[in-house]
Specification:
248 residues; alpha/beta; Rossmann fold; 2 domains; 4-stranded parallel beta sheet; two-stranded antiparallel ribbon; 10 helices; 10 strands
Length: 248
């Protein structure tokens, strides 16, 4: 056999071996046996989308930091296989949950690295509302039939609804409802306690998230303490971007 024929034969054999190996890996990693239909259920997300998700959620990708906090609060953080970088930097969250540090980070700035996401094979994805509006990003999930639940809120009422949605998805609806009842009771007790506070006695605060020079986007729940709901609850004046980064 001449050298050219030998190289050609070797190349063909190598391709065959790789193909067989990939086929074997695909069969071994298949989550559902051939012909078996996995049971599903419908959940309505924060965009009022009805989404078909697996009846039992074993793994979840939290591509919105808020969803990571809520899943952890519900005691289901061991099912988290992917998070955003912000969750990795959250020191308190990492003290509470030992699973965050080892989770993958397949999203950066709202953009999804689909290869990294596929590597952890989540049953579903919790997606931030802003990312859900990017057709190119949701198309990646649709292409590989990965169900995603949009989590979005802009006031306290919609935040409580978001918690309910996450609780329903994770099979912890009652625990989420318990938390929201506590949330509502704290709001009510705060309103009662500070209902007679005079304007001159209101505390002046500066609000910042994580870094001294960073604040949440305008219009968000945490960004705008002057919103009627938060003003009624906090009974405070807001010192915003022009203020120094400390409370006084």
């Amino acid at each position: 056999m001449n050298r050219r024929s030998f190289r050609f034969t070797s190349a063909v054999l190598l391709i065959l071996l790789v193909s067989v190996r990939l086929f074997a890996v695909g069969v071994d990693d298949a989550p559902v046996a051939s012909g078996e239909v996995r049971s599903t259920r419908l959940v309505t997300d924060c965009f009022d989308r009805q989404v078909s998700i697996p009846e039992e959620i074993n793994t979840v990708a939290c591509l919105y930091a808020f969803s990571t906090h809520v899943v952890t609060m519900l005691g289901e953080d061991e099912r988290i296989t992917a998070v955003v970088e912000g969750s990795k930097r959250d020191r308190l969250l990492n003290e509470i949950s030992p699973y965050i540090a080892s989770a993958a980070t397949p999203s950066n700035g709202g953009l999804i690295n689909i290869e990294e996401l596929l590597a952890v094979n989540p049953d579903l994805v919790f997606l931030k509302g802003e990312t859900a509006l990017l057709d190119d990003e949701t198309a990646k999930l649709d292409l590989f039939s990965i169900p995603y639940i949009v989590i979005d809120f802009n006031d306290m009422a919609t935040q409580m609804r978001a918690i309910d949605v996450i609780g329903e998805v994770m099979g912890r609806a009652e625990k989420a409802a318990d938390f929201n009842r506590y949330y509502q009771s704290v709001l009510e007790s705060t309103r009662v306690r500070f209902s007679g506070l005079k304007a001159e006695d209101k505390t002046r605060i500066f609000h910042s998230v994580n870094e001294a020079t960073r604040t949440d986007a305008a219009g968000g729940l945490r960004a705008d303490p002057s919103r009627r709901e938060q003003r009624r609850t906090k009974k405070c004046h807001a010192i915003r971007h022009s203020a120094p980064a400390f409370c006084a």
